[in-house]
Amino acid sequence: MRSLILAFINAVVVASARTKRIKAVALFGDSFTDQSRSHAIGNGTWPGKDYQQVYPPADHAATGGFQWPYYLGIYGNYSIHNYAVGGSVCSNEITPVTTVPADISGGQKKWFVEDHVVNGKLQLDPEEFVTVIWGGTNDVGIHSFISNDQRDDVSIADVTDCQLNFIRSMHDIGARRFIVMSMIPLQLTRLYANTDEGTIYWPDMQGRNGSAWHKAAYNYPNTVNRFLKDGVERLNREFHGSGRVEYFNTYSLFEEFYNHPTKYYNGSIPANVTGHCHQCPNPFDWHFCDIGDCTLDQRDSFMWWDELHPSEQTGRNIAAEIKKKIDGKSKY
Question: Which domains, and CATH codes, for the chain?
Answer without folding.
Answer: 21-184+209-250+310-326 (3.40.50.1110)
